[in-house]
Amino acid sequence: MIGVVGAGAFGTALAVTLARAGRQVRLWGRDAGTMAAARGTRTLPRLPGVILPAGIHPTADPADLRECDTLLLAIPMQRLGATLPTLGLTPRHAVAACKGVDLTTLQGPTAILRAALPGAVPAILSGPSFATDIARGLPTALSLGCIDEAAGAALQTLLSTPTLRLYRTTDVAGVELGGALKNVVAIACGAAIGAGLGDSARAALMTRGMAEMMRLATAMGARRETLMGLSGLGDLALTCASPQSRNFALGHAIGHGDAPPDATTEGTATATAALRLAETHGVDMPVTQATAALVAGRVTVKDAMKALLDRDLTEE
């Protein structure tokens, strides 16, 4: 039995693809009324038009998750640490399906899982994916990071489906940081396109942003090849190029002078957290610095781009 904590778009999409592959899934959401309605309508508002397969049991009662050996935690990163202790669960495996760095502790998802669920083997699922693609059964590949090789192999088998292919690695830091830091670069790229700065500017931000991701991640023990994989380069390419990305959409709204969309954008908090980590590890991150100032309203897109272009010339 697999439990999915979080009935937003991504959690629901994961539940749908797993249930279509024959898994029994308990899907937990906070709103009792919404989850009760879902048992009748077989739909959820965050993923309209997608019918929940019979193998999914929607619930708002954490007790329904106690039979689940494996939990997928698809809740926003900044709420992960506060939510888990309230559920009273003791799974065998706990897989984070969220991206970011906790602003209070500067930790990634697996450290939060380890503290809140000490009896569980923690893992992280990340990579280039949109919930709508997964729910529609479109081919998607993700990285599964787990330090325990045997547990990682078991989870890879359990969570892979005919349309969702998982690649496993023991480089948890690389999977976490790739998934978190690319959101910051996506905001910057969205702002550039929204402000009419062009695709060349976006390509420059993606490339230099990737260099920053590499510098910080390797300084924190990640492997370069992980950042060049699905959870780094792959996710960066997707989120910096598509308006479906919530982080790109936020940046686009800022660059265009529109009201920001009403959606969780993990890159906002991650920009601030990444700068704190960069200071600790002595890493230069000018794109991240400019993005953090931009989302905080301290600079305009024009000023942020000028600051980047005016930096001293250097080798690549």
TrEMBL record:
User: Glycerol-3-phosphate dehydrogenase NAD-dependent N-terminal domain: from which residue to which, for each copy?
Assistant: 2-150
What's the main place this protein lives?
cytoplasm
- Could you state one GO cellular component term attached to this entry? cytosol
Q: Name one GO molecular function term.
A: glycerol-3-phosphate dehydrogenase (NADP+) activity
Instruction: Please give the biological process terms from Gene Ontology that the record holds.
Output: carbohydrate metabolic process; glycerol-3-phosphate biosynthetic process; glycerol-3-phosphate catabolic process; glycerophospholipid metabolic process; phospholipid biosynthetic process
Q: Determine if Nucleotide-binding is one of this entry's keywords.
A: yes
Pathway the protein acts in:
Membrane lipid metabolism; glycerophospholipid metabolism
Q: Does the keyword NAD apply?
A: yes
Q: Which PROSITE patterns match?
A: NAD_G3PDH (PS00957)
Member of which family? Belongs to the NAD-dependent glycerol-3-phosphate dehydrogenase family.
According to its UniProt entry, the function of this protein is described as:
Catalyzes the reduction of the glycolytic intermediate dihydroxyacetone phosphate (DHAP) to sn-glycerol 3-phosphate (G3P), the key precursor for phospholipid synthesis.
Listed name of the protein: Glycerol-3-phosphate dehydrogenase [NAD(P)+]
Gene that encodes the chain = gpsA
